[in-house]
Write a structure and sequence with these properties.
21% strand; globular
């Protein structure tokens, strides 16, 4: 099985300062085999990491985190931008038209635009959900997602959702697949994936947010 972090942010997201090279450095340290830069509403980070991992032992999956009108959706496997502000149904249709998977990140986290806070999963053709997102405080939202996935037999993923490169790999998935893009997408759809990992340290996260939002203003 391979170790995969499917939801990482880079400097191409407005809320991250992480360089692709720093992300790759930590990915190698954490023995990540497969990863995805899932930046907010842009595939620019995906383009860079795909180019930098070509002919290496790390497989980069194209991805994007899209702001639909009701919450965030990952277009996992998508190499093109998808407009933000569309309905969840239209966003998911666009993802599928591009050959990607519609994955719901932090589905019940209302302060991070969790899609299932406002939308009923029964109305959506989702392919998988995150049940271990590393950016949690007490774990309630992850547990609620895990219970839904178990009840409805929805494939589950773990992901760091790292906005700072040192947090890459805090949560991850173990996936049984061929090590290529098509193999990864097929394995997720078949549920050959397990969510693992731990929450990002809230102390370290607070320190990072202070440095990013306060101290940088005085540089």
């Amino acid at each position: 099985m391979y170790k995969m972090d499917s939801h990482i942010h880079s400097e191409y997201s407005p809320d991250s300062l992480s360089k692709i090279d720093d992300i790759l450095k930590v990915a190698r340290r954490e023995n990540i085999d497969i990863l995805a830069i899932s930046d907010h509403n842009t595939v620019d980070g995906t383009s860079e990491i795909v180019a930098k991992t070509r002919n290496t032992d790390i497989l980069a999956i194209p991805s994007i985190e899209i702001s639909s009108s009701q919450g965030h959706i990952l277009g996992f496997g998508c190499e093109e931008n998808i407009p933000q502000g569309l309905s969840p149904e239209d966003t998911i249709d666009r993802i599928h038209d591009l050959g990607g998977l519609a994955i719901v990140p932090h589905p019940y986290c209302f302060y991070r635009h969790g899609l299932l806070c406002k939308s009923d999963y029964k109305d959506l053709k989702i392919d998988a959900i995150e049940t271990k997102n590393a950016r949690f405080i007490i774990g309630y939202c992850n547990n609620k997602a895990k219970n839904l996935a178990k009840r409805e037999n929805i494939p589950t993923l773990g992901a760091s959702d790292a906005h700072y490169w040192e947090f890459v790999g805090d949560c991850y998935s173990l996936i049984e697949c061929e090590k290529d893009i098509d193999g990864v997408l097929k394995a997720i759809k078949k549920g050959k994936v397990e969510a693992h990992g731990k929450g990002t340290s809230n102390i370290l996260l607070s320190k990072y947010l202070i440095e990013k939002n306060v101290l940088k203003k005085f540089d």
